[in-house]
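Colleagues,

Please find the record for the two-part complex below.
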Amino acid sequence: MSTDTPSAGDDETMTEAQLQARIEELEASVAELEADDDQEKMTIVATQGSFDMAYPPLILASTAAAFGWDVVVFHTFWGLDILHEEKSENLQLSAVGNPNMPMPNSLAALPGMDRMATWMMEKRIDDNGTASIGELIELSLDQGVELQACQMTIELMEYDEDDFYDDVTVGVGAATALQHMAESDIQLLV
Amino acid sequence: MSETFDIAETLDVKGESCPMPVVKTKSAIDEVAEGGVLEVLSTDSGSMSDIDGWAEGTDGVELLEQVEDGDVYKHYVEKTN
């Protein structure tokens, strides 16, 4: 509020022109608020780096971008591997402790089982016409999704900024993620 | 029916699954001039609900019709502005 706002006693003495000006001022600020709210915003925090957990954030992000939304995916901890060019090609599905696997844990723990489970899932994904993780990353970036790589995790994992796909945003932390979350209509932790 | 639409562009996403039909429809409609109709051919049964939902939530597009033709789901989307 500006300090020159008329006091209650002055209200009665406001001229019609002053009231009209005040109405216009309020209408302008309402229009501004409505314009701000026009575009939906979504923030996804991707924390998991297993093969199966890489899909949901990328599918939701690219689809939301097709709706014209402003989308940020903040990748932290294992989720960072999704953006890592080399590691993203080699994400693994865990056979152990996965109740959806058609084998007991005692078998799933044998060497090579994670690789086999991943290979089976990759084959299914290919047969189904589902995009690869690399394709979904390129697609998301093309659609204007902002893929952010948590700077703290980059240092923790001793990754280099050049290890990531081009156009991935680096040099960001929790505060940047929170800022977008606060403005978002939808926030998801994956 | 489809033959009554003057189709400006056809997008073939047969064999591709979620999220491709919606994402590619969005990219394709961006290239269509105002008033033009985009035909989308998909084999993904989820595209019936997804393209409907996308068109509902997106400004400047209107879903004119969806037709199930054997294994192919046909969608007709107009660019309204």
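The domain at 2-79 of chain B is CATH 3.30.110.40 (Translation Initiation Factor IF3).

Comments are welcome before we finalize the supplementary table.
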